[in-house]
Each structure stands twice: as C-alpha cells, then as structure tokens.
Amino acid sequence: MSRRFTPKIVTANRLREGDVVYLTADDRWSPFHHEAELIEDEAHAQMRLLHAAAQKLVVVGAYLADAKPGARGPEPTHFREEFRTRGPSNYNHGKQADLAS
Amino acid sequence: MYSYSDFDEAFVRARVAQFTSQVERRLDGSLTEDEFRPLRLMNGLYLQLHAYMLRIAIPYGTLSPHQMRQLAYIADTWDKGYGHFTTRQNIQFNWPKLPDVPAILQALADVEMHAIQTSGNCVRNVTADHFAGAAADEIADPRPYAELLRQWSTDHPEFQFLPRKFKIAITGAPNDRAVTKAHDIGLRMVRNARGEPGFEVIVGGGLGRTPMIGVTVRDFLPEADLLPYVEAVLSVYNTLGRRDNKYKARIKITVHETGAEEITRMIEARFAELRPLFGGNDQKLLAEIREAFAPPAFRNAPVDAYDAFYKADPTFRSWADTNLSAHRNAQYAIVTISLKAHGQTPGDATSDQMRLIADLAERYGHSDLRISHEQNVILPHVHKSDLPALHAQLVKAGLGTANVGLLSDIIACPGMDYCALATARSIPVAQELATHFEALKLEHEIGPLKIKISGCINACGHHHVGHIGILGLDRAGVENYQITLGGDGTEDATIGDKTGPGFAYTEIVPAIERILRAYLGLRLEPSETFLQAFRRVGMEPFKQALYEAEGEKDAA
Lengths: 101, 556
Hints:
The complex is a heterodimer of chains A (101) and B (556). Chain A has 101 residues and is an alpha+beta fold. Chain A has one domain. Helices cover 24% and strands 27% of the residues of chain A. Chain A has helices at residues 42-53, 79-86, 95-98; strands at residues 8-14, 20-23, 29-30, 59-69, 74-76. A five-stranded antiparallel beta sheet of chain A has the order 3-2-1-4-5. In chain A, strand 2 (20-23) and strand 3 (29-30) form a beta hairpin. Chain A is globular, with a radius of gyration of 14 Å. By secondary structure, chain B is an alpha+beta fold. Chain B has helices at 6-27, 33-42, 65-78, 101-109, 143-153, 226-240, 251-258, 260-274, 281-292, 304-312, 314-323, 351-364, 387-396, 427-440, 443-446, 508-522, 530-537, 540-548, and strands spanning 45-47, 52-57, 62-63, 82-85, 90-93, 127-128, 168-171, 185-191, 197-203, 215-222, 324-326, 332-337, 348-350, 369-371, 377-383, 411-412, 451-454, 468-475, 478-485, 497-498, 503-504. In chain B, the strands form four sheets. In chain B, strands 16, 17, 18, 19, 20 and 21 form a six-stranded mixed beta sheet that branches. The chains are: A alpha+beta (101), B alpha+beta (556). The interface between A and B is medium-sized, with 25 and 29 residues.
C-alpha cells in the first residue's frame, strides 16, 4: 500500500516584489496562507504546480509545501513555512507589518 | 583610498546598462527565470525567503563617508531604512524590489560601488584586515595588494566559471584579524631573512560542511610574484576542481584529495609557466595603487585631555578599554564602533546611524571607514584628543556600546529570518544571548569571548572558529542548535569541537550559560580567557556542565 499523501499548498514569490504568495483554488495568488488551496491528491498537486510554474510573469520559484487543515484554512506544518507567512523575527517587516489589520 | 580609473568607471556603467536591459526583458517575458537567475546572481541579486536581497561589495572593507551616505540614501529610497553588514565585508539590503534594482545599481555606480561578483562561482570580494594601514603590528598595508587582486579578478575571463566560489583574504600583520587560514587563498605578509616583505600563501582553508584549515604552499612569496602565483593557484584549481559534486567542489577538497605536496608541486609548475608572461605592468599598476593608499596627514597634538578624561569618566573608560586598538601612531587610536547593541541585530545599521558615522569619520577620522568581518564599523585613524567628543556622539546615536571582543560582540548570519538556505534562525539567538548576559551583568567578568552563530551548515557565521560556535539545524522539523567549543579564527586557527547532542531553541541560551558558569568556576584567575581555559582543561568539564547537570532531558 502506498504511503498516505501529505496535503500540500502551492507557494511562490512574486516576480516584481519578491513577496510570498499562495495559490488559491480560484487561481488567485493570495498573500495569506489560509486562503491557499489545500491539495489532498498527488496528481492534482502536480497539475496545480504546473499551472503555477507557467505564470512566468507573475511568480518565481513555485513549489509544493506541506500543510494541514486549520480553523481558518490551511496551516503550515514546518517552521520555515510558518516564518514565510509572517516575515523576519528581528523586525516588524514583511507580511506581519504589511498585512496587519 | 582608491578612485576608479576611466576603465573601472566604464566597466561598471556598462554592467549597469546591461543589467537594466536584462531586468526589462525579464519583466516583459523575453527572459525566463532560468535564463535570468544567473544574470541577476552575477549582479548580486538573490531571491530569499520574504523578498529579494542585494549584496554589495565593500572591497577589502574600505568605505568613504561619501559612499556610506549613499548606502544610507539607498536604504531610505529603495529599502526599509537600514542595511546589514556581513561577515565578508559586504552590505546586504533585504527588501529591494526587482524593478528598482537597476536604479540602485546606478546609485552605487555614482559612488564607485557595485554588486558584481558578490555571487556565483567566481573570485568574490577580496577581504582584508579591517585595521589595515593603521595597526601597530603591521608589516605593510595589505589593501594595495587587495585592490590589485580586485582589478585582476574582476571579469577575469578564465575565472568566471570556477568549480565553485572562491574567497581570498589578506592581512599585513602577524596577528591575523582576517581569518586567512579559513579562506580558499589566505595571504599573510611576512619578511624573509633579508627583511624584504612578501607573503605566506595558504591554500584550501574553508568552513562550511567540511571545515578545514588551509595549508601553506609557499612560506615566502616575493610581492612581485603575487599575481602570477595567485593565477597559478586558480588555474590548477580550475582544472582539478570537482565540477561533478557541488559539495566537493571547493579548493579545500581539491587540496585534500590531491595532497598538499602534489598540489604545491602543480602550483609551482604552473607558476613557472605563468611568471614570464607578467612583464611588469602589474608592478607599475601596484605602484600607482599604492599612492592611493598613502597614510593620512596625521595631526601632532597633545593627548593629555584623553588621559584625564579616561581617568575621570568610567563609562568612557569602559568603552575605551574594549573598543580601542593600538594605532601605529601613538597619538592615535583605532576605534571600533559596535553594531552589536544588546538586543539589536548584529551588523545592522540604520540610515541615520550610517549618516552619523560618515559625519564622524569626516570630523574625527581622516574620512576613512572600514567594515570588519565581525560586522562592526571601524574608524581607523582617530586622534586620542578627539575620543571623548566622538564617544559622546556615538552614545547619543545608540552606537556607544562597550562590548567589542566580549560575549555580545556576536557574529551571526541572517539565518532563517531572511536566508533561503538556512535551516534555523540565528539572529534571535544572538539577540537573546546578548540581553540575557547583559541582565546578569556577567559580560565583563567573563572577558574576551567570541561567539559565532550560523543558521546552516554553510557556516556564513563562522561558527567553527568561534570560541563558542553555535550551528542551527533542522532536526525532524524543529530548530536544534549544536555547540562547538575551542574554535579560533586567528593565526592559531583551530576548528572547534562538537560538545555532543544539540539543544532546542528555548534551551540554547541556558546551555551557553552553563558553559560559561563552568568556565568562571574553573578558570585559574580572571585573566585566563575562556579559550585559554578550554585549551588547558579540554572538553570534559564543559560537557559535564552541559549535559550531566540537567540530565539528558534537554538534549535532542
């Protein structure tokens, strides 16, 4: 029996700004991890990654990252991806500042 | 300092124009990312975790006040109002946007700066002793040689696609402040039996995943042979270097696999071929360059005011004791401005601080500035009578921290707060160590100590040569910090030894405290430094303090 597929999201950086973004189910690039499409199927994950990688004028370095379902939407499972949702820990820069409401 | 020739100026401007067009073509889709990536890296532009990062060379760490002000202007105009000085005497801006980068490079070219060869498998920024031209212990100023090497290596057609990156460090003093033994080529000035200056050539040092101390391939190289000899080393490496395996591609592996004796023979054989091709123009150029590094017109004035202030003011005295070094002119001092205020990010300066430092360099420092690999700023020539006024202005700007050479003068790489390669954070560990020991008021009692932190095995934070080295790793999805002890980056270069299992993020500061409390308990007298004590007693007492007191519960 094959191993269970760990759910994924597609993430990348915006070409012009370098900002971290996530691919949504309705084909937008969102700055919010919880708006990402949580992909539970390996074949679908590959299709979504190809779709992302084809957007050469919008994003750079698209890849699949592990995620898990959460109350508001997908949540990161690894600390690196958690840092990417926020920004650096030494200054209030990046998403934690830009998207603070 | 050296000013660009017409050739340098035209070359840098041409590169800016090229890159401007490359960015335009990337943004309009004519270039794919795969095509563009090597082009942007050739110009120092990385894509990191949260944004792009632009790495700008500060050749051999030397900077004019005018250039420092331009860096402040760039920080304010296109970044977030600060810059990060690195362990390779570069400055990094962490938030540039791709469409703005051509304008930033243009602004850099306006002050004779660039980001060329700050990435890629080429000869990187040549680093030098940050006290060059000022140190009391110096044979000669190493910067003219560093500038010669910079000109020779810039866009050198044979060495643009080496097996891997290549780092050269040079020092003119017997006390090695440039970590020459941990570089691909380390050059140490020495004198031969006739008293003539030349170089000890050290090859194959390096940190990273396979740390190695370089081997001496030439005890004495006459200074006129410098370029052909360095070219011979590069040439042998370019032929033998392992292009099949990125992790075995640095020259340290080539030296290790070939053997010191055989590689020395090959270098000498290649040198014999190359030497006749150098007809003396390099020496004419060196003579011209040397004029650009003539010492400033030192002032002759009494230093009584300094002596009186030193006796009277304990805050000033504390700063003078840690942040001043001996200048070759007894009326002068070398000032290290600490960019390590407790709790701040090591190596970061705000644009306001950069402008103030530029002003102070003009007013008190013969308009000379240096960036050290230890991520501080140096005013190499300050008359002692000016020190009290200088100190007062530094304190007002948050730049008067008296901690150079002490626990909180930590080298830390950007780690996982910025770097895409990092496996753990390093900046917050440095911040927490500094504030924790500041609260305990133990820093001055502990005395000279070098803590160096890297956020991954690539070792940009030089952890292998820290008296205490900390390496952040990803262990099963959590940050874990490995400790090494007894490393040394000086002329007695030593790779530190691992203590054992690593510690979790919340446990690393208490672990370092246990090591240092053990040191305070076992040192013979307050003047026995941590490194001396470690060399006397070895690892065992520190292991006991680290692991036995707490049981194994913290260890991962």
